[in-house]
Amino acid sequence: MLQKFKQLLSYLGEYKKYAILTPLVMVGEAAMEILIPFLMARMLTYGVKAQNTEYTVKIGIIMIVASIFSLACGALGGRFSAKAGIGFGKNIRAKLFERVQDFSFANVDRYSTASLVTRLTTDVTNVQNTFMMCTRMLVRSPSMLIGAFIMAITINAKMAVVFAVVIPILAIALGLIASNAHPRFTKMLERYDKMNAALQENLIAIRVVKAFVRERHEIDKFEASADEVRKTQVAAEKIVLLNAPVMQLCMYGCILAILWFGGRMSILGTFDIGELSGFISYIGQILMSLMMITMIFISLIISMASVRRICEVLDETVDISDDHADPTLTLADGSVVFRNVSFSYNKDSENPNLEEIDLTIRSGETIGIIGGTGSAKSTLVQLIPRLYDVTEGSVLVGGHDVRDYKLNVLRDQVAMVLQKNVLFSGTIRENLLWGNPNATEEQIVEACKAAQAHDFIMSFPHGYDTELGQGGTNVSGGQKQRLCIARALLKKPKIMILDDSTSAVDTATDSKIRDALQQYHSDITTIIIAQRISSVAEADRILVMDEGKCNAFDTHENLLRENAIYREVYESQQKGAE
């Protein structure tokens, strides 16, 4: 675990200087606080008791200066600590987000979205708060503990023996608390993941919830999830809270023992009243330092679970890497070849999702893909831009294995319009420019006309500068699909993959989109996954998928004559149309 803490500390970056300055000024504050009781004891003994006004005033002025210096150090420590802690948290979040961006689809599949959100927010906040506390107290408290203990021994060594009894009790108590608290906090953060998942799911599907009048059901479900968080939090916190009564028991026990023995010694004249006053002050500082050290220890216990969860993401081995790719290699054309390809999401070769796929797609061809639900149509095309890596065999694009290309080179030339169309907050223009940040107005309009999106965009009062809600909530499903197609066209790719991306548009608009693609982008290899045979009937060839295997690959006419699956789908759709 110490290694993981060190790993996170490497992300201090430009805030390292504040992390170094914080403990330095805190040592200054501790030194002044240790000095003040010593000065107080001398003032009482040699000033007040001896009725030496000049000495009393002199020591009093020194105490005021020491107090001001201590206050200044404390204020600077708080400022430096805040800058270091908040900057540290910012750097960890940035590194986590950057790491997630490097994940392959397989990596993302291992974590829920809610879990990643919790790690980027709650877990980082826990680590950030612990870091801020440590930078201020991890040096200050031990310094004050050691300094005050030395001063206490200097005043009366016999009385200082009291601490020999207290420290072992505290050490045993902290060990028991730590061993029981850590697994409970880990469980609490897992419950946070589940609660965030329920919240995210509800907000995304809020229209469905309202359409089915399931608000009460969702409220009950979320309350149950929140209650699970409450229970695990209470179970964890009640262990940690034992620290306070144990600490107070030791602290008040020490004070009582010192007052009892010190008072008797003072009455007998063997312990000066000034020394007793200073000794009691140092006892308070020692006990307060011990309390702060235990608080740091508890914070570290709480943050250990968060540190582990953060490092899990940072240490995740990315399944897809282009470290050994040829940086000079570019796509010569849009040809695609599958050579004996098998693929499994869980890397289980015994139960592949795709099995022994062999097919060749020539550059510039339009290929249709049909098949029943679960026939692995989408899985097949996701291997082309290397969103997943094959389990066996190889995929060649432009005459080279996709693993030979740098990922940005390959994916820049493969445009995908996925089944789930995603638009981002911002204007229509900003969303379209995702396809090509340097696209001109003419190129944007041309792509939107080809995608049959220009007319409905211009029907909005602000046209291309119309603001889209989060996820494109203020446009229809068909409009969203057309915008996503236009965005993909702006990439001017060599390969265009439409994964059931016209399912929400009418047949006439679907036909216009296909005609525009053939007319204006005939040099692009186009792969169309569709449920409607009418959407792929004019393709050069059509691939029929069945349970992860290539059942047939031929023209529409030949498939109607020779392939039973294709003919059955065609006839059922024709009857439906009639």
- Oligomeric description of these chains: single chain
Strand order of the largest sheet: 6-9-10-3-11-12
Secondary-structure content class: alpha/beta
Largest sheet: number of strands, sense, barrel closure: 6 strands, mixed
Low-pLDDT ranges: none
Over all CA atoms, what is the radius of gyration? 35 Å
* Portion in beta strands: 5-15%
Based on Cα principal axes, name the global outline.
Answer: elongated
The percentage helix is 55-70%
Tally of individual helices: 19
Distance between the termini: 68 Å
Q: Kindly report the average pLDDT value.
A: 83
Give me the count of strands.
Answer: 12
Describe the structure.
With 578 residues, this protein is α/β, with parallel strands linked by helices. It has helices at residues 2-9, 16-48, 53-102, 105-110, 113-155, 163-204, 206-211, 215-240, 243-267, 273-314, 377-382, 407-412, 428-432, 441-450, 454-458, 477-489, 507-520, 556-562, 564-577, and strands spanning 336-343, 354-361, 366-371, 392-397, 400-401, 414-417, 426-427, 467-468, 495-499, 525-529, 541-546, 549-554. The protein is elongated. The two termini are 68 Å apart. The mean pLDDT is 83.
Brief sketch in words of this structure:
With 578 residues, this protein is of the alpha/beta class. The protein has helices at residues 2-9, 16-48, 53-102, 105-110, 113-155, 163-204, 206-211, 215-240, 243-267, 273-314, 377-382, 407-412, 428-432, 441-450, 454-458, 477-489, 507-520, 556-562, 564-577, and strands spanning 336-343, 354-361, 366-371, 392-397, 400-401, 414-417, 426-427, 467-468, 495-499, 525-529, 541-546, 549-554. Helix 5 (113-155) packs antiparallel against helix 10 (273-314) and helix 9 (243-267) runs antiparallel to helix 10.
